[in-house]
Design goal:
The protein is mostly helical. The chain has six helices and no strands. Helix 2 (about 30-90) runs antiparallel to helix 6. The two termini are about 25 Å apart.
């Protein structure tokens, strides 16, 4: 149990149990008082658990965002490195290695992994926070609609055929589109940091 859970169990929970036991054995005239005491204990537990659950949920959503942002950072880093190498080889009239082609193909697969992960995160958070889920789903939809994976596949084909100048254009296109998606996620992170209540679900205090 967490520290909060231990405190609740050892204090309020045990108190509620004892009150219920007393209600079951007390004289009829005193049962209502013990039952009310048990109910009050349960309500105090709920009032403490709801914010705790909300805090955990918010932390999980932040982790999802930072995870998606990390995937985009890795994609951008890899694509920029390939573009720099492609540009250097094109200027030197050199040739792309098989490793460059493989790296470009791997990045194309990583784009699909980003789309899949973002959509899975959206599904898992849709019930608790529809607005948050829709925001990250848009990132996946944008990546698919913009055809980033297609850009990278085309770049890999051009590298494989040693058309280095032709490979640069889809590489540059992929980078621009990835940066746009990253900017939208960073904006969402900024909003959550400075205006956390925008996406925070509301919990009603028990009576």
């Amino acid at each position: 149990l967490t520290q909060l859970g231990q405190k609740l169990y050892l204090n309020e929970s045990l108190h509620a149990i004892e009150a219920l036991k007393s209600a079951s054995t007390a004289a009829p005239a005193g049962r209502a008082e013990f039952a009310k005491e048990a109910l009050d204990c349960q309500n105090r537990i709920l009032r403490q658990l709801s914010p705790a659950d909300a805090s955990m949920e918010e932390s999980l959503k932040d982790n999802r965002l930072t995870g998606l942002a990390a995937m985009l950072d890795a994609l951008l880093k890899g694509e920029k490195e390939l573009l720099a190498k492609t540009t250097e080889l094109a200027a030197a009239k050199g040739k792309a290695s098989p490793d460059m082609v493989d790296s470009q193909d791997a990045l194309a697969e990583d784009v699909q992994a980003f789309i899949r992960t973002a959509r899975e995160d959206a599904v898992q958070t849709a019930t608790s926070d529809a607005a948050f889920a829709e925001s990250i789903k848009k990132s996946a939809d944008q990546a698919e609609k913009e055809g980033i994976q297609k850009d990278m596949v085309l770049a890999a084909e051009n590298l494989d055929q040693q058309r280095l100048e032709d490979a640069k254009k889809p590489q540059e296109s992929a980078i621009r589109k990835l940066e746009a998606i990253k900017a939208s996620l960073e904006k969402l992170l900024h909003i959550r940091m400075h205006n956390p209540n925008i996406f925070k679900p509301r919990f009603l205090n028990p009576p």
